[in-house]
Design brief:
85% helix, flat, 6 helices, Leucine-rich Repeat Variant
Amino acid sequence: MKKYVSIAIMMAVIFSTTSLAANKTKALKASQQAVESLMMGLESENYGLKLSSAYMLGELSSKKAVFSLMRMLRTANNEDERIVAALALYKIGDPAGLNIVKKAISFDESGRVRKHCSDFYHQYVLNLKGKEAKSY
């Protein structure tokens, strides 16, 4: 009887492990599809879709979006688009993206964009210093 119980428990563990792996694979595919959709949203003429896509790419920390967001920060005509692109780059934390945010502090034509970029970049630096302090 103990043998059958052991076999049943092992079967349940194998089934749940396989099920978890399948769910993880589905979630990964869904996440990749979401990033692809959001990347297309960055190219949209729809203002709201473009802003929300940039924001969500930052929330997802999508490294794949860094260059598109960098281009958005450099070339967008609208201040809000540039600010959201800078925020997304800050959230992603990629060094190349943060370098563009740092450059925007000095070179963006809008004082409002420069201020936000300064805030994002300085918060990034503070976070780095905090991580370094914790590593000692």
